[in-house]
């Protein structure tokens, strides 16, 4: 399965590494702000806006017939070669169907540019196979001491989740409570997001977002 992922990246996103801040290395991208200014994890309204925006973007990117890859990249403390069972259980709780669980693949590689081991967990699925809304909500809590965090608290745990639309060649990366990065092999796949959620685009990314579509008539 890791060969499927590697082949997908090489063919559709050449030179891209699945790592935080990946948006800066790919031109066909949009970066959306999902939380209100002064986000407070203890404030239900703050979390509500972030959750609603992240969920709306997810539903726009993924449809029931699309093939997905749910990819988790983990760098556990201690640079461990063996991934503890607790890490596997954390991901498996978001999978609804047993036949989907059986397709879970794990492999180990060295992190790009770092002397650190990186574990990757990959599940091929469709959106109805996973508790994606619960997963989205829990990602939002990743930098807070909250019971719903997945792995990042305490901060020595490093872990990121990528939803990949294998059918339409799109990568959705919800970067904790602040922003959602969406990349596409074909920038025209981003046009509906740009049009519908334009006001959510982060201001420091707006110039690149607008230049991406300047040569495309509406």
Please give a structural write-up.
- The protein has helices spanning about 1-10, 45-60, 85-90, 100, 130-140, 190-195, 205-215, and strands at about 30-35, 70-75, 105-110, 115-125, 160-165, 170-175, 180-185.
- It has about 220 residues and is of the alpha+beta class.
- The chain has one domain.
- The relative contact order is 0.22.
Secondary-structure blueprint:
Blueprint: H1 2-12, E1 29-33, H2 44-61, E2 68-75, H3 85-92, H4 98-101, E3 105-110, E4 117-125, H5 132-139, E5 158-165, E6 170-175, E7 179-184, H6 191-196, H7 203-213
What fraction of the residues are assigned to beta strands by DSSP?
Answer: 15-25%
Total count of domains: 1
Fraction of residues in H or I helices: 25-40%
Structural class: alpha+beta
Sequence of secondary-structure elements:
HEHEHHEEHEEEHH
Task: Output mean pLDDT.
Answer: 81
How many beta-strand elements?
7
Strand numbers in spatial order across the main sheet = 1-7-6-5-2-4-3
Largest sheet: 7 strands, antiparallel
Q: What gyration radius follows from the Cα positions, in whole Å?
A: 17 Å
In short:
This protein is an alpha+beta fold. Helix content is 30%, strand content 22%. The longest helix is centred in the first third of the chain and has 18 residues, at 44-61.
Features:
single chain; 218 residues; alpha+beta; seven-stranded antiparallel sheet; 7 helices; globular
């Amino acid at each position: 399965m890791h060969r499927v992922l590697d082949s997908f990246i090489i063919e559709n996103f050449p030179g891209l590494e699945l790592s935080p801040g990946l948006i800066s290395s790919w031109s066909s991208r949009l970066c959306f702000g999902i939380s209100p200014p002064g986000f407070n994890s203890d404030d239900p309204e703050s979390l509500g806006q972030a959750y609603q925006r992240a969920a709306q973007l997810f539903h726009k990117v993924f449809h029931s017939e699309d093939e997905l890859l749910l990819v988790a990249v983990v760098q556990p403390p201690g640079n461990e070669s063996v991934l503890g069972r607790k890490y596997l259980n954390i991901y498996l709780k978001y999978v609804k169907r047993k036949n989907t669980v059986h397709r879970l693949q794990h492999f180990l590689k060295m992190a790009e540019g770092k002397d650190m081991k990186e574990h990757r967990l990959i599940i091929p699925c469709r959106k109805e196979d996973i508790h994606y809304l619960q997963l989205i909500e829990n990602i939002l809590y990743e930098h807070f001491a909250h019971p719903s965090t997945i792995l990042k608290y305490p901060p020595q745990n490093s872990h990121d989740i990528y939803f990949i639309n294998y059918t339409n060649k799109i990568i959705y990366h919800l970067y904790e409570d602040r922003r959602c990065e969406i990349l596409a092999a074909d920038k025209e796949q981003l046009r509906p997001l740009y049009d519908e959620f334009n006001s959510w685009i982060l201001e420091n990314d707006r110039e690149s977002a607008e230049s991406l579509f300047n040569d495309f008539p509406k």
